[in-house]
Design a protein that fits this description.
The complex is a heterotrimer of chains A (368), B (152) and C (359). Chain A is of the alpha+beta class and 368 residues long. Chain A is built from 14 helices and 8 strands. In chain A, the strands form 3 sheets. In chain A, strands 1-2-3 form a 3-stranded antiparallel β-sheet. In chain A, α4 packs antiparallel against α13 and α6 packs antiparallel against α11. Chain B has a single domain, classed as NADH:ubiquinone oxidoreductase Nqo5 subunit (Beta Polymerase, domain 2), CATH 3.30.460. Chain B contains 3 helices and 7 strands. In chain B, the strands form 2 sheets. A 5-stranded mixed β-sheet of chain B has the order 1-2-5-4-3, covered by helices on one side. In chain B, α3 links the parallel β6 and β7. The longest helix of chain B has 12 residues. Chain B is globular and about 50 Å long. The termini of chain B are far apart. Chain C contains 16 helices and no strands. About 1% of the residues of chain C have low confidence. The chains are: A alpha+beta (368), B alpha/beta (152), C mainly alpha (359). Chain A: GO terms for molecular function: NAD binding; nickel cation binding; oxidoreductase activity, acting on NAD(P)H; quinone binding. Chain A: It holds the Pfam family NiFeSe_Hases. Chain A: It comes from Thermoproteota archaeon. Chain A: This is NADH-quinone oxidoreductase subunit NuoD.
């Protein structure tokens, strides 16, 4: 953006002491109207998880690893577990794969509902949607509690399978929740996605072209909202996704509305996946015994979390703790894309919350 | 192009700069190169072989072999293939050329590798603390193996 | 029994007051009881304060119900109706201070004047053929607009007096928004004036006895309603309140009871504009033409219509997010003003037909 007149540039600190920024700080350089630069300030929630994992056994390490993105704990925990299994060459029984898929999709719905609610609240002052999503999440949190015993910090996946089998009555309850939720999705579409004033706030705002999205390294719905079809569930074909029938949600426009549409469509696909997985659940064991010490090797796993693709590279040295765990976090990349956005397209100060929440960065996994 | 062909294309063009190359898993290639060849091989990967989607970068500390290995993870949209570009550097004076001119995002990842491992990236525009606070002690690199976590 | 003059004067009062008062006070009350009733009860102080109470309570409960929650519950055993009083009491005991370097006189003057100016505009609205606090005759509508035009002045003063770079930006935005909303209001009201031929609010209401002006002035009706939301900074136009990262725009630096008074400004503005809206377009204190005159008193009809208009404004708050400032300004300048002008042209062209409808 070329500053043609000598306007006074202010540096506004958006966060961390801010109602809607989360635990992060963006420094906006603006002249009151246009935003010329967004400088992200990382590190408020850096906990050194990669270092901590070197001091925990494989099973112990799942709990701190999930803290990378608690709202989406199943997908994130799955990344670590799969990396370990990849390193040691452990095959997971079929039934465990299906159970993992179900929990991952429940987690994905939770995360998208949370993101949508906060986006409506932060960007539009539309707290009704925020409270509706909070209420609807309760159903899924209760489902997860029925399955794993925890509402959202599951630690349910262990190398070799899952901790417990599906309890009695879970399938009926899940089907009831899903049919109610599908009606609620229609309500969300009508009152939020197709709300005229919301459309004026988010359509055409923060446009990201496909080439820029690829070059800058955007992840997840931010990438798919710009027309790039990349979904780890179809690329890596992990767990039961290979045998289930679902589409990848892609939108072409690349603006904020497209990214929100991608999340909305992904929720619809998740309900389909959960239904199919429950119908076709194969019998068999739900976990396999795994020795505490694993042989030397290295493993790499890529998992599609709700925010994008998370890669975990694990190096084992023959003891019962990993030697090094490297996490490539999706929100780190998305925050980088946000910081480059004012150079690519026009952003006003009032658009900043809409843009940031359309990328849905989860600051804890950017900081690790 | 399959994974073997990618490895062949790189070793044909860069010969002795490639120290080691292997196919880690289906669709995942790992090559280890000498630090001098990093920028040219990276440019070759991006322009000729189509590795355009950067995923991240991190380092691994091997005190037993007295080296720190820096790994770059890049994905190719067209080939649907992942490559791990690795380079070793001696532990007592770790220096590597920066790849932020090749893939812009590596800017941030290299800052993190510097503050966690102490690798100095030559040519980096802004080598400052990213995740650690500004008043962190000089010369203390948390992710190295000799930094012990104060465990209870 | 001792009969003295004071007893005789007291007996003339409509309501016997058992407290012994000095004679001149009793005489004053006896002669002016109607005006005093108007000033204190309706449409005066008690009405405005009660309106705030009821409107805020209704808004909080309605919003809560739409958002699947409950809203105020415990304050006041029935459905939390005393919540606003509790909040006001809490605000009174908070520390009242001005930021360093602020212009103290102006800073504290604004919360005093800001709610009173829209309340002052309410005195011009007729609540019945004789029930009007200030009969301005041929200047009624003009005086109303003159009073409400002072509001952006106070806003800018508040923003400037706070000695804060960001509040002055917020205040200026609030002023832009108000101007963009006020123009369509004037022009739409001009349509009514052309049709009625007078600025006198009582006469405008009287002319609507056969048909409310909402029907011949349909475009102006819609324009006035939308612009009214903009002028009182209701959602979807509550931009200066929350848009910027500047917490609360021009109200940021106020604490304690000053803050409480400023929060009532929004509802006082809504009250003033709604009353004008009802007077101009919805027949004022008269009942619906079908029912014929004299079914119920003017005050009753005013309250019913006020309730409906305010309920619609609150309902719009639930279903809409807010606009960006440039979008709201574009709405005002590019769409509402031309619509209001179209209304005037139509009125001028079709005045005889419209008058025939009203007869």
């Amino acid at each position: 953006m070329v500053v043609s007149e000598a306007k006074e540039i202010m540096r506004i600190s958006w966060g961390p002491q801010h109602p809607m920024s989360g635990q992060f700080r963006f420094i906006l350089e603006t002249d009151g109207e246009n935003v010329y630069e967004i400088i992200p300030d990382f590190g408020f929630t850096h906990r050194g998880i990669e270092k901590i994992l070197e001091y925990r056994t494989f099973v112990q390490g799942i709990v701190p690893f999930e803290r990378l993105a608690m709202v989406d704990a199943a997908n994130v925990g799955l990344a670590y577990v799969r990396a370990i299994e990849d390193a040691a060459g452990i095959e997971v029984p079929k039934r465990a794969q299906y159970i993992r898929t179900i929990l991952c999709e429940i987690s994905r719905i939770n995360s998208h509902l949370y993101a949508i609610g906060l986006a409506a609240e932060a960007a539009g002052g539309y707290p009704a949607i925020f409270l509706w999503t909070t209420a609807d999440r309760e159903l899924f949190l209760d489902l997860a509690e029925m399955l794993t015993g925890a509402r959202w910090s599951y630690a349910f996946f262990i190398p070799g399978g899952v901790r417990a089998d599906i309890p009695e009555g879970f399938k009926e309850r899940a089907l009831k929740v899903l049919s109610y939720f599908e009606k609620r999705l229609i309500a969300y579409r009508d009152s939020w996605l197709e709300n005229e004033i919301w459309l004026t706030r988010s359509r055409g705002v923060g446009r990201l072209s496909a080439e820029d999205a690829i070059k800058l390294g955007a992840a997840g719905p931010s990438l798919r909202g710009s027309g790039v079809e990349l979904d780890m569930r179809k690329e890596e074909k992990y767990e039961a996704y290979e045998e289930l029938n679902f589409k990848v949600a892609v939108q072409k426009e690349g603006d904020c509305q497209a990214r929100f549409m991608v999340r909305f469509l992904e929720m619809i696909e998740s309900t389909k996946i959960i239904r199919q997985a429950l119908e076709n659940l194969p019998p068999g064991p739900f976990k396999k015994p795994v020795p505490p010490k694993l042989p030397k090797g290295e493993g790499f796993a890529r998992v599609e979390t709700a925010r994008g693709e998370m890669d975990v590279h694990v190096i084992l040295d023959g003891s019962d703790k990993p030697y090094r765990v490297k996490v490539c976090a999706p929100s780190f990349r998305n925050l980088y894309v946000i910081s480059k956005l004012p150079k690519l397209t026009k952003i006003l100060v009032a658009d900043v919350p809409v843009v940031i929440w359309s990328f849905d960065p989860w600051y804890l996994d950017a900081d690790r | 192009m399959s994974e073997e062909e990618v490895i062949k294309a790189i070793s044909e063009n860069f010969g002795e700069l490639v120290v080691e190359s292997k196919v880690l898993r289906p669709k995942k290639v790992s090559i280890t190169v000498k630090p001098e060849g990093l920028v040219s091989i990276a440019t070759f990967l991006r322009d000729s072989l189509g590795f355009d989607h950067p995923l991240g970068a991190g380092a691994i500390d091997y005190p037993a072999e007295n080296k720190i290995q820096m790994v770059y993870y890049i994905w190719s949209m067209n080939r649907r293939m992942l490559i791990m570009l690795r380079a070793d550097t001696p532990r007592d004076n770790p220096r590597l050329p920066t790849l932020s001119s090749v893939w812009d995002q590596m800017n941030l990842h290299e800052r993190e590798a510097w503050e966690m491992f102490g690798i100095v990236f030559e040519g980096h525009p802004r080598l400052e603390h990213l995740l650690l606070p500004e008043d962190w002690e000089e010369g203390v690199y948390p992710l190295r193996k000799d930094y012990k976590l104060p465990e209870r | 029994m001792l009969i003295d003059e004071r007893c005789i004067v007291m007996a003339e009062l409509p309501i016997p007051i058992p407290i012994p008062l000095p004679e001149w006070v009793v005489e004053f009350i006896a002669l002016n009881w109607e005006t005093l009733l108007k000033i204190i009860i309706i449409p005066g102080l008690a009405f405005i304060l009660l309106f705030e109470l009821v409107a805020v309570w209704f808004e909080r409960k309605f919003l809560a119900d739409a958002m699947l929650r409950i809203g105020p519950l415990y304050c006041g055993r029935v459905a939390g109706w005393l919540q606003l009083i509790a909040d006001a009491l809490k605000l009174t005991v908070k520390e009242l201070f001005a930021p360093k370097g602020a212009h103290k006189v102006l800073f504290y003057a604004v919360p005093v004047f800001a709610p009173t100016i829209p309340a002052l505009a309410v005195v011009l609205i007729p609540f019945g053929p004789d029930w009007i606090l200030f009969r301005a005759g041929g200047a009624g509508l003009l005086l109303f607009f003159a009073l409400t035009s002072l509001i952006p002045v106070l806003t800018i003063l508040a923003g400037w007096a706070s000695n804060n770079k960001y509040t002055i930006i917020g205040a200026l935005r609030s002023a832009y928004l108000y101007i963009a909303a006020e123009m369509p209001l004037f022009i739409a009201a001009a349509g009514v004036v052309i049709l009625a031929g007078t600025f006198d609010l009582v006469e405008i209401v009287e002319l609507q006895s056969k048909m409310w002006f909402a029907i011949p002035q349909f475009i102006g009706f819609i324009t006035f309603f939308i612009a009214m939301l903009g002028a009182s900074e209701r959602v979807p136009f509550d931009i200066p309140v929350a848009e910027q990262e500047l917490v609360l725009g021009w109200r940021t630096e106020y604490t304690g009871i000053a803050f409480g008074l400023l929060m009532t400004v929004e509802y006082a503005c809504l009250l003033a504009w709604s009353l004008l809206f009802i007077t101009l377009y919805l027949g004022g204190y008269q009942g619906p033409p079908i029912l014929g005159p004299g079914t119920a008193s003017g005050i009753f009809w005013m309250l019913v219509k006020l309730g409906i208009v305010v309920a619609i404004a609150i309902f719009l708050r639930v279903v809409f997010p807010r606009y960006r400032i440039d979008q709201a300004l574009r709405l005002g300048w590019r769409y509402l003003i031309p619509l209001a002008l179209l209304n005037i042209f139509l009125t001028l062209a079709m005045k005889p037909y419209m008058l025939a409808l009203l007869k």
